[in-house]
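quick one: benzoic acid bound model?
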Amino acid sequence: MSLRLGDKAPDFTQDSTQGPIHLYDWMGDSWAVLFSHPADFTPVCTTELGMVARLKPEFDKRNVKVIGLSVDPLDSHRRWARDIAETQGVELNFPLLADADRNVAQLYDMIHPNADSTATVRSVFIIDPKKTVRLTLTYPAPTGRNFDELLRVIDALRLTEYEKVATPANWKSGDDVVILPSIPNEEADKLFPKGYKELKPYLRITPQPK
Ligand code: BEZ
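yep, here:
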């Protein structure tokens, strides 16, 4: 059964390059990005893990912990980490789950048999501090993901969690946002002191709240 938005993220304990990880304890009060890749010693995955390692300060700033996964064993992960450091110029500075028994891959439905019968696809789960799944993405093996997009969407998730706004197409942090259609103008007048432009009753644009 695949996981849907709003579902509770399944908890697990699994080995990783940073020791055994119990997901809920490891997350604490942080958000998490759990992402799978097909296999160790593969080209796209090597660049993806290097990119996430370089972007780690950006995830940290947003109170988001990142954790990778493939179904290869720990000794393979450890040998591959040396290649990542050598070719990507950055140490693997976040845990990589060694899911050789496929426990986590099955819990999160990361193996799509019609794509590949054994390897995990490129799944992404963004999990909030209440351990609720807030976003999922699935990419095929030959297509690397855009991790700037993950940072962008985390900014949007966090903003729309706390403010009565939504983010329009191609929004990035600092751009104008739209007021939720469920908020009547009388309330919007109070909530958005900088004002808003009403293009339609359902389309009201306002500067991003702080
Ligand atoms: C990879 O690097 O993971 C990969 C590249 C091409 C096809 C499948 C996987």
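Residues 112 and 198 are 45 Å apart (CA to CA).
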